[in-house]
Specification:
7% strand; 3-stranded antiparallel sheet; Serine Threonine Protein Phosphatase 5, Tetratricopeptide repeat; single chain; 2 domains
Length: 402
């Protein structure tokens, strides 16, 4: 069993809506128990009135079922609220308090509709809404990690990618749903979970795509864009070569000595300082060509002084470091590339404006160094950017002022 304890995406402000939803679910659960013990309303009557199902469907049950949980134990309620707390905080930080509340309820409605299509049985619980939140987390923070408590052959606390964790539960629901279709019934509304995941992931992607949510260097659309860029770069490298692989007639071959004119006109051979980074460059470029991100980034991180790589390789080191969650190394790679380019606005590895924007986003949102980001954002104020890039630039400037 994998039990989530937290993620590495801590919200910049208190998750008010997430907290209210958890408290409200707990109060409803407690109210059901008290009403039953006082004789005011039996548990069966409460569940029959609030559960959602295709038989005797009432519109309000699309909302009420989301706040009802199995009264025979705290497991159903406890796990739903734990998942909501772990993933809801970060999603709320992106959607805002009211936006997250609407998203949560709509996710539950989508889950209920999926369940009613798949099964005639009534359903209760927040798991469909929580699945929608988990799906949105996957779209907004695909490279996040989750701290889990593992109960299996091993018992302990581990950190695993959020993608693996959420995919694990999606696969379980898929297998369980197919098993149910083959006649092996269970008491879990797997179709509701799958409908919630689908709604959350697709809706978050749509909000990013149309610009209702500011794009960041952490979301799934950016990750997809980076993967396409890396694929194009690898294809270009295979076709034209990296410039470091072999010497060609147009490639200068490094020499140990060079000629210097003497007063008598006879050339004098003087030694040239050896290239201290030649071996580092070879290790890094070979690691990039075999797609070994960890080795390439580690070699770049360990190199001393100013290591000069080809622009494309320098940008790729930044991309790989960012994908590995090493923001400091990514910032170093992008900064060195921009310093070497100077006034040049383009080159192998992408537009300098794009690199400045990405660098600023990491400095502001990942490393908390807005002062270092300010010169880059100032340089972008008068630049002609795409609508998405301009939106991100303005958002970063606004965040620096708050």
């Amino acid at each position: 069993m994998l039990i989530p304890l937290g993620t590495d995406r801590l919200p910049p402000r208190r998750a008010i809506t997430t907290s209210i939803l958890i408290v409200f679910n707990l109060l409803v659960f407690l109210g059901m128990i008290l009403a039953n013990r006082s004789g005011y309303a039996s548990l069966e009557d409460t569940l029959n009135a609030g559960a959602v199902g295709r038989n005797g469907f009432e519109p309000w049950t699309l909302l009420t079922f989301q706040f009802l949980h199995d009264p025979n134990g705290l497991g159903h309620l406890g796990f739903n609220m734990l998942f909501l707390w772990v993933f809801g905080q970060a999603v709320e930080s992106r959607l805002g308090h009211w936006g997250f509340a609407a998203f949560y309820l709509l996710g539950g409605i989508a889950a209920a509709l999926a369940h009613m299509v798949a099964s005639p049985a009534p359903a209760i619980g927040a798991s469909g809404s929580v699945a929608a939140v988990s799906g949105a987390f996957l779209a907004l923070f695909p490279r996040a990690t989750v701290r889990i408590l593992l109960f299996f052959f091993l018992i302990g606390i581990y950190h695993i990618p959020a993608l693996w964790f959420i995919a694990f539960y999606i696969v379980i629901d898929l297998f369980s749903q197919f098993a149910g279709m083959l006649g092996r019934s269970n008491d879990v509304a797997n179709a509701a979970h799958l409908g919630g995941y689908a709604f959350g992931f697709s809706t978050a992607l749509l909000l990013l795509a149309v610009g209702m949510l500011p794009r960041t260097d952490l979301d799934a659309l950016y990750l997809f864009k980076q993967s396409r860029r890396r694929a194009a770069m690898r294809a270009a490298t295979r076709e034209y070569g990296s410039g470091f692989d072999t010497a060609t007639p147009t490639t200068a071959t490094p020499r140990a000595i060079t000629a210097k004119d003497r007063s008598d006109g006879v050339p004098e051979l003087v030694p040239v300082a050896p290239d201290e980074h030649a071996e580092d460059r070879r290790i890094i470029t070979e690691a990039l060509r075999r797609d070994d991100s960890a080795a390439a980034v580690e070699a770049y991180r360990a190199a001393s002084g100013k290591l000069r790589l080809a622009d494309g390789d320098q940008a790729e080191i930044g991309n790989r470091a960012m994908a590995l969650g090493d923001a400091d190394t990514a910032v170093r790679a992008y900064t060195d590339l921009l310093e070497r380019r100077g006034e040049r606005t383009n080159g192998s590895g992408g537009s300098s404006d794009d690199i400045r924007l990405l660098l600023s986003s990491m400095l502001v949102r990942r490393l908390g160094r807005p002062a270092d980001a300010k010169p880059h954002l100032d340089a972008l104020k008068d630049r002609s950017l795409t609508p998405d890039a301009a939106t991100l630039r303005d958002a970063l400037l606004a965040e620096m002022e708050n």
